[in-house]
Amino acid sequence: MESGMLLSGRQRALIRESWQRVSGSPVQHGLVLFTRLFDLDPDLLPLFQYNCKQFASPQECLSAPEFLDHIRKVMLVIDAAVSHLENLSCLEEYLCNLGKKHQAVGVKVESFSTVGESLLYMLERCLGTAFSPDVREAWSKLYGAVVKAMRRGWETLPEGD
Q1: Cα(29)–Cα(72) distance, rounded to whole angstroms?
Q2: Could you say which of 54, 76, 95, 99 would form a disulfide bridge with 149 (CB–CB 3.0 to 4.6 Å)?
Q3: SS (H, E, C) 11-68
């Protein structure tokens, strides 16, 4: 997960600049991301249960305090990746464990592509014209590296788990 070969200096700068514009309102922007995620794949909604409560609609889920905490955590993971662009490998173990946690609650690896689409959608909506093709490419590369590390969480589980 060496970011030096993954992202150019210009790409790292584009990610930092764009994230700086988004990170000031993490819940607001996270709501855009997750609203889009549920629009693209409503079947993900049952994965989000708190205190054994099943949400009847995406709107109910998106307004639940527990889910807003989840949004904050997701945005903190993105923030950590942006903060460690020079050395993403230091997040490898954390992201692998995060992958294990997602697998344990029933998330499929394939869902990460939908999450990636939702992340790019959120960035485009929040950045407007500043979301250039170069910014899109830089974020796509970063997200790909994060997902690659998280996928290792699936691969490291023993058979039968």
Answers
A1: 10
A2: 95
A3: HHHHHHHHHHHHCCCHHHHHHHHHHHHHHHCHHHHHHCEECCEECCCHHHHHHCHHHH
